[in-house]
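Before relying on records like the one below, remember that each one covers exactly one chain. Contacts with other chains, cofactors or solvent are not represented anywhere in the record.
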Amino acid sequence: MTGQRTLENNRMLTRLSIVAVAMFGFGFALVPFYDHICRALGVNSMVEKGELPANTQVDLTRKVTIELDANAHGMPWRFQPTVRHLEVHPGELVHVEYEVANVRDTPVTGQAVVSYGPSRAGGFVRKLECFCFTQQTLAAGEARRMPVSFVLDAGLPADINTFTLSYTFFEVAGRS
């Protein structure tokens, strides 16, 4: 009887070990799977910087107004752009800065998510440097300026003369 029970226990241990290894492998497979879905849907990719557009000529015949917006969703941060709007030529390299300050008396970590209005304009913004690429941790009372560098692709549809570039910071739980 004990020999039968030992055999059953060994079989159960083998099955549970296989399930544990499969779950561990599945967890690792989710990261690239998530990244591929985000790329396919054009959703915020936090792992890859934009590339320079193939045609980097500046279109001096046209100007586009970019409105800058900043939000700290439920966070103890003051977050705002240093300028509220600017006019750029498509193809021109643009540098802007955002000011952020942690008003809490403890460190806080946040991740910025970008959105565009109209949303179809987002496909024509090639970010080269952005604080949204990584999580940001601010010490208690710390303030800093964070840069964003991008090129507005010259292929931007002619009917888009103004668009909004908006960043929203969300607190990263467990990272403070």
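The first strand starts at residue 64 and ends at 73.
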